[in-house]
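Input/output pair, single chain:
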Amino acid sequence: MKLKTIKTILSHPLNQQNKLSALMTFFKRGVVIRLHHHPMVYPFLENTSLVVEKGMSSAELQIYTGLYDLHEMLFLTHYLRPDDTFVDVGANVGVYTILAAGVAGSNAISFEPIPSTFSKLKRNVTYNLLEGRVDLRNLGVGDKEEKLVFTNSLDATNHVISSDEKPAGATIEVPVDTLDHLLANRTPNFIKIDVEGFEANVINGAPDTLANPELKVIIMETNGLSDQYEFGQNYLHNKLLSLGFTPHSYDPFKRNLQKLETTGASNTIYLRDLEFVQQRIKTARRIRFRNMNI
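Output:
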């Protein structure tokens, strides 16, 4: 696991010119968490922070890379505005939520099904004084109202247990509902969905939400995990195309969007009303990151 993490750190675009420094950060934290077992606060983007404890892999990757999902995260900060509503499905400990509410100043609705992870999400929101902007929901999201069994010991990779899966670790039953029902009269401008392969079920439970023209952006995990469920990645991709969304990559340093012919290897930015989106990112304020204004 450590070797995989090191490879991830060294291959990150922000670490190409400072690999030694990145490795030192990794090993220094390894020593610190052995001596200090309490949560620690780390600076994140601009004036935000992350409260991180041992085992919070998604938050730890931000420490080692600065911004792990570099292109998607900076796209979010360039696109969102204070009047927008960002929906975080599969919020985990709140990295995207903190960027949306704490950096972009938007309102956020954040769904995290696992109670232990939800408590860490809530802690990050509270530490950043964002309770007034973030609506926290300890729920799963799917294609109907029901209860589903999730893994409960895999940190950022906890997921709905598929029909042929035999989980080795702890499990938990969690209430699940659809986005159409959960959002009620709220209209999202931007949705991020990272639910370890259950993305198509989330989409299938949101026909009214997806039909609303105010929704311009969906960032989706597209690493092939959905193929273990009833609806695979090809289904999901074609469904979004049929709704008028097209896949793009983003260069945050040039603020340039490039249309893709297929999905991204890890995540994909799906856009609708490209002219509107381009105008948004071109007129966005510059984000202060390390020694750069992006």
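Residues 1-67 form one domain. The CA atoms of residues 254 and 294 lie 9 Å apart.
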